[in-house]
Amino acid sequence: MTITAPAAPAPASLQRIVALALPALVVLAAEPVYVLVDMAVVGHLGRVQLAALALGGSVMGLAAWLGNVLAMGTTGRAARRFGAAERLPAVIEGVQASWLALAAGFALVVGVEAVAGPLTRSLAGSGPDGALIAAGAEQWLRIAALGMPGILLTFAGNGWMRGVQDTRRPLYYVIGANVLSAILCPLLVYPAGLGLTGSAIANVAAQTIGGLLFLLALARERAPLAPRADMLRGQLSLNGALLVRGAAFQACFLSAAAVAARFGAAAIGAHQIALQLWMFCAFALDSIAIAAQSLVGAELGAGLGDQARRTADRIGRIGGLLGLGLAVVIGVGAVALPALFTTDSAVRAQALIVWPWFVAMLPMAGVVFALDGVMVGAGDARYLRNLTLVAALCGFLPAIWAAYAFDLGLGGIWFGLTMFIVIRLIALLLRMRNGAWAVTGATR
């Protein structure tokens, strides 16, 4: 019997987009909120312990970065299968992503355990407390690293569940694991008297339980759990392109911090304040991108190319409006927001230099983040990789190093970040217009 494709309905409604975006936003925000709680608990032990946690946490961020790449790629591939009425193959994409997560997680554990000592000593430097900070960071990291497989399994699980448009279970799993950690951390640090070690144990417990919950969800789907070479190759190809793209982001932000530091303590302080607020805004904008990955991937998988284009257009507009709303909030808080982080008048004066660039970027960034999600859902990762490299090499990096060479200060650095957004915005709008991304079918 021949099954005809259904007529294309209207593009995804605002209600459906919000229903996917809001749980994604909570999941995205859960980890940074826990980090703040962890820092508040450990911070009362002393500045050396807080510095050790900061160094160890920066290394653990590598697992979160890799996990985010894995989640994006898995969402797009699973969504296509789901849209083609192939739920079981969509879940099997999650199985393959979980195998990759386990392999990468255990490799990271071995690597971190091998270099934890030299790495933390290098990061701590030779200052007056350098040796104490390095020792604390190494102690914390050697334990916390055991949670890396759980971190990656959690991201893989989020990826396939978003692909099949199941947003509730990831929300419960992630919040549950983080609440557990938030309860365990102060108990182990203080009443149990374990100090930094207690913080690390709480991290491992929460991350491992989170990963196990997502593995249990796979088992309940009754999907075959064996590795599939064809699917693994497809995921590795897609994730490789996204990994290069992510590395370009890291290079840009590290370079920006390095240049800001050369303008003095006030400049790097103001840059860090603005950057943290920028990252907060990015979480909100990323939630729209996640909805785009799921919806567009499913529509292309169902063969509904025209509908996918209409949905992409709507999501781009929603992203722009969200960015505009954030710009208004950030703009109104130009004086008050930096004051929440510092009483230093020099730092606040430097922040005022950054603020016009920050505000101007947000509406454009809203569109860029949304369309990034569209392209990930469409499996157009190579285009995103190439575009990010071009924007970094031809926009961001030349601008910020010119800022250093000509002593342009923070204004020059944030002009570079703005150029990074502008180049990507123009290229993504052109890509949207020519429609080359909208390839239909269960796989690309």
TrEMBL record:
Chain segments annotated as coiled-coil in the UniProt record: none
Molecular function GO labels: antiporter activity; xenobiotic transmembrane transporter activity
Annotated organism of origin: Allocatelliglobosispora scoriae
Record GO cellular component, one term: plasma membrane
Transmembrane intervals: 17-37, 49-71, 97-119, 139-159, 171-190, 196-219, 240-265, 277-298, 318-341, 353-375, 387-406, 412-430
Localization in the cell: Membrane
Protein's UniProt name: Putative MATE family efflux protein
InterPro entries noted in UniProt: DinF-like, MATE_fam
Keyword Transmembrane helix found: yes
